[in-house]
Amino acid sequence: MAWLYLLIAGLFEIAWAIGLKYTDGFTRLVPSAITVAAMIASVYFLALALRSIPIGTGYAVWTGIGAVGVAILGMVLFDEPRTVLRILSILLIVAGIVGLKLVTA
Prior knowledge:
The protein is mainly alpha-helical.
């Protein structure tokens, strides 16, 4: 269950990071409220996951999920560059996340 909580935390991290783009510096009420709610949910589910998962592993996986998700959505939603090196770098982060999962009980 802890790994599911960590996945949910990572998805909320993606949501709040992308949400920041829509808040216009927290001047738009609805996007700002959604973004803050996603921030709170992300940290809440991370805290639940860290009851069972070591802090180093949990935090690295959480930030990795967020980084990969935001990088991919940046390319899809905001037309950010889609270079081979960028995609290979994303794959390296994914490999690190998988590696941490495999070596953590």
